[in-house]
């Protein structure tokens, strides 16, 4: 009986692997070894979520995604460490999730995401296709340039950075004293101008009074 069960599981595994379709999920070492590597996955049913994991010296395990051409969910990286140059998705041609297609949030050590074969990327209308925020060291300009070459428009990106935000704060703090100094100068200039206008009005009134003045007629004795 046990032999029959083992044979059934083996046959099921081979038939599942033969379809090339693999389930998506949270990407961990266990997920890769049990669901991806060795199965010849060409399609991921669902999204791939890299969440709060350290991939230093483990990047080779991601090569199980090398044959994947289609992902029916988001490619999501959040709070990871040590991913380096991600090249395992070089054959991905289509990504079509319900929300954003590519999300890169707060990753440390994610240097690049290589998608040279990507030709179709869909997303729901109420969000952006690509969301990127606070990925220290990531080649953002290179990534966005490559996506533009694939036909994506700037309005489809949402890219922010903590560094850019902090630079904005420092710029405001630096410019604030200059702005206040300019306000003081403008106020002083306005005060001086008001004084001069007041003096001019007084002088004008005195001139009018002088024009109206008539000396008294002399009386004869």
Automatic annotation (TrEMBL):
<feature type="transmembrane region" description="Helical">
    <location>
        <begin position="169"/>
        <end position="191"/>
    </location>
</feature>
<feature type="domain" description="Receptor L-domain">
    <location>
        <begin position="40"/>
        <end position="136"/>
    </location>
</feature>
<feature type="signal peptide">
    <location>
        <begin position="1"/>
        <end position="17"/>
    </location>
</feature>
<dbReference type="InterPro" id="IPR000494">
    <property type="entry name" value="Rcpt_L-dom"/>
</dbReference>
<keyword id="KW-0812">Transmembrane</keyword>
<keyword id="KW-0472">Membrane</keyword>
<keyword id="KW-1133">Transmembrane helix</keyword>
<protein>
    <recommendedName>
        <fullName>Receptor L-domain domain-containing protein</fullName>
    </recommendedName>
</protein>
<dbReference type="Pfam" id="PF01030">
    <property type="entry name" value="Recep_L_domain"/>
</dbReference>
<dbReference type="InterPro" id="IPR036941">
    <property type="entry name" value="Rcpt_L-dom_sf"/>
</dbReference>
<keyword id="KW-0732">Signal</keyword>
